[in-house]
Design goal:
globular, 5-stranded mixed β-sheet, 42% helix, 5 helices, Nucleotidyltransferase, domain 5
């Protein structure tokens, strides 16, 4: 990526879930990759110092200095193991679109199968294969990171690859 004419693309790639993976490429700043946990604490009533996961996500997302991005990309919600997982994903998606629209930042969704095919050659690759592909593509930069961060990194790479096409 370094040195390519796409290095001036400032992109925030998100793997939306209660444990959201993110990869941020901003010109002049080292690549930032990680996972942010927005899991609701079990057995506790929501208090002002313990906000709902959607509120936490909104605050975190707004703190990402949106005026620096010229694109936000995230995986399109797909199949879910539970109703709670579906509701969370749809909520995080709605918040992301709203924040992008408020800040005037273009956003796009990518199907998980497209990212999987780009990374592994198979549109139905499992988490282990995706993590391995991310570690190989990153030159080991993702060692020790979870599949959420790996998915966000691969989504960033996919977006950059598509921009070259």
């Amino acid at each position: 990526m370094a040195g390519s004419h796409f290095s001036n693309m400032n992109i925030l790639a998100l793997d939306l879930a209660t444990k959201t993976g993110f990869a941020k490429q901003v010109q002049g700043i080292p690549l930032s990759i990680g996972t942010r946990d927005f899991t609701q604490k079990k057995g506790r009533k929501t208090m002002p110092d313990d906000p709902h996961p959607f509120t936490q996500y909104l605050q975190w997302l707004k703190a990402q200095t949106f005026d620096q991005f010229n694109r936000v990309v995230f995986e399109r919600p797909g199949f879910f193991k539970s109703l709670d997982a579906r509701n969370s994903s749809v909520g995080f998606r709605a918040i992301t679109i709203m924040v992008c629209d408020v800040y005037g930042v273009p956003w796009s969704e990518v199907s998980p199968g497209s990212v999987k095919k780009f990374a592994t050659g198979s549109g139905n690759a499992n988490k282990k294969a995706m993590l391995k592909a991310a570690q190989q593509m990153s030159g080991g930069m993702l060692d020790g990171m979870d599949h959420n961060a790996a998915d966000a990194y691969l989504l960033l790479r996919y977006t950059l690859n598509e921009a070259q096409s």
